[in-house]
Design brief:
Structural class: alpha/beta
Shape: elongated
Strand content: 25-35%
Distance between the termini: 44 Å
Largest sheet: 6 strands, mixed
Number of helices: 7
Number of domains: 2
Helix content: 25-40%
């Protein structure tokens, strides 16, 4: 899906697909990579976090009522506002779930160095979660439960798209996120850094009564396949109690419960 945007700077390259919307601009002979996010809360949290900048806002006229909440946090640097039809916003982000506000921002800033176990004692690793809405929901729970950082696995997992950011209610903007090439590579980094690794599986000890060791990383597996086979022997298996064995929690729901249990055990909540 290609979309032409009429803005006050030169568009260099733009490309959109089902995994998100990326734009490359050329401004004053410097290339800047940007992306589209959408929804009131994602934009509010981006402005609160101050980790990256807005470039343009696309909205309707009259503006949605909640737009006032964005204006309260309006940055001092210049941000262009473009007024377009709601149908244009639909095409820009590939969904109607944008609350009549779309933002063109600088790209998300990922962590370049791996985590320091002395400073970041509680991590979550998201292994093979393919639905961006589940990814976003896990990141939302991570922030709410005081997780110090998140690891996203590039191979076989969803990237942090606008849909994922919307599902996180924008709270992903406040998290330190590291992208690992594979689950196996991430485990090596975790072990070298001194983290205890806990794997959410169906055959482990009761997650509610487990005596968690800090610093630690809780690994959440994908919706269908669970945790990668290559790392199943790399940590302590923990399991959420449930009514019968032939049912299971949604990946993001399980993650929320597990992160809460660990956080409560560590006295963070």
């Amino acid at each position: 899906m290609y979309i032409k945007l009429f803005i006050c700077i030169t568009i260099y390259v733009y490309y959109a697909n089902s995994r998100g919307f990326l734009i490359m601009i050329k401004k004053k002979d410097k290339e800047v990579k940007g992306e589209l996010i959408f929804g009131i809360n994602p934009i509010i949290e981006l402005l609160k976090a101050k980790k990256r900048k807005l470039i343009s806002i696309y909205t309707t006229k009259p503006t949605p009522q909640a737009f006032e909440e964005i204006q309260k946090l309006w940055p001092k640097y210049p941000v262009a506002i473009q007024y377009v039809a709601r149908e244009v916003l639909d095409r820009m982000v590939g969904t109607t779930d944008h609350q009549s506000v779309v933002a063109w921002t600088h790209a998300f800033v990922y962590r370049k160095q791996f985590f320091d176990a002395k400073k970041h004692k509680f991590l979550v690793m998201i292994d093979g979660v393919q639905d961006p809405r589940n990814l976003g929901a896990i990141l939302r729970s991570a922030h709410c439960t005081g997780v110090d950082g998140a690891i996203i696995i590039k191979r076989g997992g969803s990237p942090l798209t606008g849909v994922a950011i919307k599902s996180s209610a924008g709270l992903s903007e406040h998290l330190d996120i590291y992208v690992a090439q594979s689950a196996a590579a991430a485990i090596i980094d975790l072990k070298n850094a001194g983290y205890a690794v806990y794997l959410a599986t169906f055959d482990g000890e009761n997650a509610a009564s487990c005596n968690y060791t800090s610093p630690l990383c809780m690994v959440i597996g994908g919706e269908g396949s669970g945790i990668s086979k290559a790392i199943l022997s790399s940590g302590i298996h923990v399991t959420l109690p449930q009514k019968t064995k032939d049912i299971s929690y949604n990946a993001s729901v399980a993650a929320g419960i597990l992160l809460f249990l660990v956080s409560q055990h560590q006295g963070k909540l």
